[in-house]
Specification:
This protein has 189 residues and is of the alpha+beta class. It has helices at 11-25, 28-38, 41-66, 72-76, 98-110, 172-181, and strands spanning 77-85, 93-96, 113-128, 131-142, 147-159, 162-170. The protein has 6 helices and 6 strands; from the N terminus they run ααααββαββββα. Strands 2-1-6-5-4-3 form a 6-stranded mixed beta sheet, sandwiched between helices.
């Protein structure tokens, strides 16, 4: 399934540059498992189908989100997802479970926005077996009227069509700036 927001023109060049970086992030035990599976002829023949299925699932979720959908996390993430935000600062770290991630990372940020974060460009979506990497740019508007823009790389480990593990790379400075600058809304009576 080809997405309208996933350009293909420079994918090969970018793929040669990013794949070694992504592979370097995969723990040795996972690499050994992938190698062991690759020696099995059946696993080899199913790998492209699995990768394309996982890639299509992620592209479909990003397309729906970009068009105004608001169920990206609910539809794509496993309830027991382990979501790790790489970097330093109070919001970097690992969140265990969808509810933990939404409560401690998503809501404190999204409640300070007047428009939700939307993907404005999905540059690349790569898949190999159960692993999918997405490079995308997102934009929103904070409740104080100022724009929020960020570039992300999310690496997903898929299981049964849902994200079981995620590692997120983003610039935490603009994210934390919105949290510092914009107060939480007061609850309506």
């Amino acid at each position: 399934m080809q997405s309208a927001i996933v350009p293909r023109r420079s994918a090969r060049r970018w793929h040669r540059a990013i794949v070694p970086l992504i592979v370097g992030l995969i723990p040795l035990s996972m690499t050994q498992t992938l190698h062991a599976e690759s020696t099995n002829a059946r696993a080899v023949s199913l790998e492209p189908q699995l990768a394309e299925h996982n890639r299509a699932r992620v592209v479909e979720a990003f397309d729906a989100w970009a068009k105004g959908g608001n169920r990206f996390f609910d539809d794509l993430l496993s309830p027991s997802v382990r979501w790790t935000i790489r970097g330093s600062g109070p919001y970097a770290g690992t969140y265990v479970g969808l509810e933990d991630f939404v409560t401690r990372a998503v809501r404190p940020f999204s409640s300070r926005l007047s428009t939700p974060v939307r993907p404005v460009a999905v540059h690349h979506v790569f898949a190999q077996g159960d692993d999918v990497a997405v490079h995308w740019d997102g934009e929103a508007r904070a409740r104080d009227g100022r724009p929020y823009r960020n570039s992300y790389v999310w690496i997903f480990r898929m299981k049964d069509g849902r994200v079981s593990e995620a590692t997120a790379f983003l610039d935490l400075v603009p994210y934390e700036d919105v949290i510092r600058r914009v107060p939480l809304p007061t609850p309506s009576p």
